[in-house]
Amino acid sequence: MTLDDLCSQFDQMDDWDDRYEYIIELGQDLPDLPVALKRDEFKVQGCQSQVWLLAKPIAGEPVRIEITADSDSIIVRGIIAILLICYADKTPEEILAFDVRALLTKLGLAKHLSPSRSNGLHAMVKRIRQIAERVLEERCSEEQRSLAETN
After folding, report:
1. Which CATH number belongs to the domain containing residue 63 in this structure?
2. For 38-96, how does the pLDDT look when each residue is reduced to its tens digit (9 = 90+)?
3. pLDDT value of position 61
4. Which of 42, 120, 50, 43 is CA-nearest to residue 79?
5. Is residue 6 a contact partner of residue 85, using CB atoms and an 8 Å limit?
6. 14: helix, coil or strand?
7. Of the candidates 103, 124, 99, 104, the residue with the CA atom closest to the CA atom of residue 48
8. Separation of CA 85 from chain center
9. Backbone dihedral angles phi then psi of residue 43, each to the nearest 5 degrees
10. DSSP string across 75-121
11. 135/40 Cα distance (integer angstroms)
12. CA 38 to CA 17: how far, in whole Å?
């Protein structure tokens, strides 16, 4: 599903009960994270529910980031699914350039999520952005080492 598809789906729904139901459906389609990966080191701090988020660079040119996440809350799983639509297999630059606040406003989520869910969502976005920044820093370090070796 693309971001445009997601926005179109939200636009077609008249009320928030339908939208919450759709968010839950998105979460149900999210693959479960294996129990072995539901460790404290992958937990997102700042979420009321338990959320585990992993990301790794995908080799290639350009480098992309693969994100996997899960939660023990069905609504939060749906929010994760929305974030994966936004960020999945994007470059670090694309992740850092994406305006998630504008999307949340467009979907109406900004004003319909409880404060604790909103805080959790922003904690997940912060974590994803930190991972993107770290991948960029590592890539810059590798390029500097490569330049130093050739000189």
Report:
1. 3.90.1010.10
2. 999 999 998 889 999 999 889 888 999 999 999 999 999 999 999 999 998 899 999 99
3. 87
4. 120
5. yes
6. coil
7. 124
8. 8
9. -70, 145
10. HHHHHHHHHHHHHTTB-HHHHHH--HHHHHHHHTHHHHS-HHHHHHH
11. 21
12. 30
Q: What range does the domain containing 79 cover?
A: 3-150
**DSSP class of residue 134?**
H
**Residues forming a β-bridge with 137:** none
pLDDT of residue 145: 61
pLDDT at 71: 96
Q: For residues 117-150, b (16+ Cβ closer than 10 Å) or e, as one string?
A: bbebbbbbbebbbebbeebbeeeeeeeeeeeeee
Question: Are the C-beta atoms of 36 and 49 separated by less than 8 Å?
Answer: no
Nearest to 71 by CA among 17, 124, 5, 148: 124
pLDDT digits (tens, 9 = 90+) for 26-53: 999 999 999 999 999 999 998 889 999 9
Query: Which amino acid appears at position 127 of this protein?
Result: R
Average pLDDT on 139-148 reads 66
Number of domains in the chain: 1
Q: 0.85 cut: is pTM over it?
A: yes
Q: Which residues are catalytic?
A: 47
144 pLDDT higher than 80: no
Tell me the angle at which helices 74-87 and 16-29 cross, rounded to the nearest 10 degrees: 80
